[in-house]
Each structure stands twice: as structure tokens, then as C-alpha cells.
Design brief:
- This protein is α+β, with helices and mostly antiparallel strands and 139 residues long.
- It has one domain: Roll (Thiol Ester Dehydrase, Chain A).
- 20% of the residues lie in helices and 41% in strands.
- A six-stranded antiparallel sheet has the order 1-2-4-5-6-3.
- Strand 5 and strand 6 form a beta hairpin.
- The longest helix is centred in the middle third of the chain and has 17 residues.
- The protein is globular.
Length: 139
């Protein structure tokens, strides 16, 4: 997919990947802010019926990876180098909202903060930070 095709509409059409499997839907996609929602349902909860921390990390890494990709040139690719997540509050139903913003956009690394909140944006569910490595594509 070319960067100009990274729109919520196009990203939401994608099938056959983890993002689609978990029901993640993109709401805002720009080079400086990405927002997506993810359902809290049988695909994303752990056995106790609360949002699985791994699902939150998938949402965070998805947003940070796309954000980094939107900020590099066409000869570069972005790969995850490190991600962390602090799970603050549980969620049992509805949706969670992930909002990603850049902290650092350097030549060789990008750092993104991802805040995952309740659907009404009032409760912080998870705070995450991802470091992306910026590499030259193999020729």
C-alpha cells in the first residue's frame, strides 16, 4: 500500500491480517495523529472477561507502526524495536480507543506514545510507547 492510500477507509478494507481479525477500525490517520477503535469482545478479552493486555499492545504497535511509516520516505521501512505498555484500568465491554502521537521523529528512530482509553475517552486503560527503527529498503 502506498502512503497516500493510508486512509481510514482503505485501512479498514484490509482483510486477512491480525488488525482485521481483532476488529480494529481506523478513525483518524495523519502523519501526526492516528486514532483507532478496538472492540472488547471474545476476540480481545482474556479468560476473566477483561481486555487482554496483548490486544492493547497489538493496537498500540499498529498505530505506532503506521504513524512511523507515514513519516519516512519511500526508500525506507519501519520496524518495531521496542514496545512497552502499562495497563492502568480494565475494560469489559464496548470499545477502547487508541490515540498515537509522535514524541521523536529522528533519522534512524521514531518514538510514539499511544494512549488507550475507554470509548468516552474518560478512563485511561493503557499507556504505551513504541520505538521504531527506520531502515533502508533492500534493493
Amino acid at each position: 500500500m502506498q502512503k497516500e492510500q493510508f486512509t481510514p477507509e482503505n485501512l479498514n478494507k484490509a482483510t486477512g491480517n491480525l488488525v482485521a481479525h481483532l476488529g480494529i477500525k481506523f478513525l483518524v490517520v495523519t502523519s501526526q495523529k492516528l486514532v483507532a477503535k478496538m472492540p472488547v469482545d471474545e476476540r480481545t478479552v482474556q479468560p476473566l472477561g477483561i481486555l487482554h493486555g496483548g490486544a492493547s499492545v497489538v493496537l498500540a504497535e499498529t498505530l505506532g507502526s503506521i504513524g512511523a511509516t507515514l513519516n519516512v520516505n519511500d526508500s525506507q521501512i519501519c520496524v518495531g524495536l521496542e514496545i512497552n505498555a502499562n495497563h492502568i484500568k480494565s475494560a469489559r465491554e464496548g470499545y477502547v480507543i487508541g490515540t498515537a502521537t509522535p514524541i521523536h521523529l529522528g533519522r534512524s528512530t521514531h518514538v510514539w506514545e499511544i494512549r488507550i482509553t475507554s470509548e468516552d475517552y474518560e478512563k485511561l486503560i493503557c499507556i504505551s510507547r513504541i520505538t521504531m527503527s527506520i531502515l533502508e529498503k533492500k534493493k
